[in-house]
Every structure is written in structure tokens, then in C-alpha cells.
Specification:
5 helices, 236 residues, 4-stranded mixed β-sheet, Helix Hairpins, binds zinc ion, mainly alpha, 5% strand
Length: 236
């Protein structure tokens, strides 16, 4: 390694920083964040809609079951009535037993009918909620589409800028020792920027004074010296 290599690496870093900045702008674009929020909202409404749909399906099954149960009760009452007509009870006790049985069926029917009415009301609520979900989602979808158009335009420009900057970065890589480049990329995974200048006897990345044993190594530029505190590659 020599000073010139480190200098080339430093120049590479300057362009690399610019490329990363553009990439970050793309990632943190307020338009993109709004888009993501709108998208999440629409998904949320779709989920709600689906949940209601499932409840409606459960209710439809329950309604069928109730209709069947009511029909069965009515059959029982009809059978009871037929029995009453064909074979009239002879004593008062038998009459009241039959009436009690009929009364029990009527009560059962009444409670089923009450449940039905409740479900009809719930159905109306569900319809209203579903309409609200659809309406809200549609409103946000309009916003989403508008934002998307803005974002697409914005992103096309930013991506072109990023591509151009990455091309500059690639040019700057020419002539750099692959070992040095690898080191740079390893450090970059932990800290950005991965290189720092020596200012006085301090690493300018973290402002820590470097031990004199390292200072001479940094000044000679003969080997890669990393700051013991922040891990950056230190260049004179
Ligand atoms: Zn440092």
C-alpha cells in the first residue's frame, strides 16, 4: 500500500458518499413515505372489508340454520294440532300438556325470530361498514394514483442521477488495489464514511487521538491503519 493508493481510495470515497446520498434520498423520499402510508391504508380497508364479508357469510349460514329450525318447530306444531284434531285429549291435564308443548314451540320460534331481526339489523350495519370501507379506500386510491405519478417522475430523475453518480464512482475505482477496495467495503458495512483524515493526531471520524505507534504508520502510508475507536481507515 502506498500514499497514492490511499489518496485514490479517498477520492473514490468522495464520489461514493454522493452516490449513497442520492440512494438515501430515494429511500427517504417524502412522496414515497406518503405512498407507503396510502398503500397500507388501502390494504387495511381491504382487510376490514374481507373480515366483514366473512362475518356476513357466517351470518348467512346461521340464518339458514334458523330457518330450518323454525320450519321444524312449525312441523311439530302442525303435528300436534293434527293429533289434537284426530285424537282429542280426554282430560284437562292432557289438554294443558299439549298446550304447554305448543307454547314451548312458539316460544322457541319467537326467540329465533328475535335473533333473525337482530341479524337483519346487523346486516344493515355490515352493509354500511362495507360501503364506508370501499368509499375510504377508493378516496385514498385516487390520492395514491396521483402521488404515484409524482413519485414515478421524481424517481426517474433521481435514478438517472444515481446511475450517473455510480458511473463516476466506478471510474474512480480504476487503479485501486482490490485488497484496499475490499477493506473499504468491509469497513463501510459498519461505518460510513469508512475513511477519515488524520487531523493533528486525531482521527477526524471520531476525534480520538491516535497512539504514537500508529501515527508513524499512518504517516508512512505503508499499511492500512484503522482507528481503534471507530474502525475507520485513517489517511494522512
Ligand atoms: Zn476514529
Amino acid at each position: 500500500m502506498d500514499q497514492q493508493q490511499l489518496e485514490l481510495m479517498w477520492q473514490y470515497q468522495q464520489e461514493d458518499i454522493k452516490a449513497d446520498r442520492i440512494a438515501n434520498e430515494i429511500k427517504r423520499s417524502p412522496t414515497r413515505q406518503k405512498l407507503e402510508k396510502s398503500r397500507d391504508f388501502i390494504i387495511e380497508q381491504q382487510k376490514k372489508y374481507k373480515q366483514i364479508e366473512e362475518q356476513v357469510a357466517v351470518m348467512a349460514d346461521r340464518k339458514d340454520a334458523i330457518r330450518d329450525a323454525i320450519a321444524r318447530c312449525e312441523e311439530q306444531i302442525a303435528a300436534l294440532t293434527a293429533r289434537f284434531e284426530q285424537n282429542p285429549p280426554e282430560d284437562e291435564e292432557a289438554v294443558s300438556a299439549m298446550l304447554a308443548e305448543a307454547g314451548k314451540y312458539r316460544e322457541t320460534i319467537a326467540s329465533y325470530e328475535q335473533e333473525m331481526r337482530r341479524m337483519v339489523k346487523d346486516s344493515a350495519d355490515h352493509d354500511q361498514k362495507q360501503r364506508a370501507c370501499r368509499h375510504e379506500a377508493a378516496k385514498v386510491k385516487v390520492e395514491f394514483d396521483q402521488l404515484k405519478a409524482v413519485y414515478d417522475k421524481e424517481i426517474t430523475e433521481k435514478k438517472a442521477a444515481l446511475d450517473a453518480q455510480r458511473a463516476v464512482v466506478a471510474q474512480k475505482a480504476a487503479g485501486i488495489d482490490p485488497r484496499l477496495m475490499e477493506e473499504y467495503n468491509v469497513i463501510k458495512k459498519h461505518i460510513m464514511p469508512p475513511m477519515a483524515r488524520l487531523v493533528g493526531n486525531q482521527c477526524s471520524g471520531c476525534n480520538t487521538a491516535q497512539p504514537s505507534s500508529l501515527l508513524s504508520k499512518i504517516k508512512s502510508g505503508a499499511e492500512i491503519v484503522e482507528c481503534e475507536t471507530c474502525g475507520r481507515m485513517i489517511i494522512q
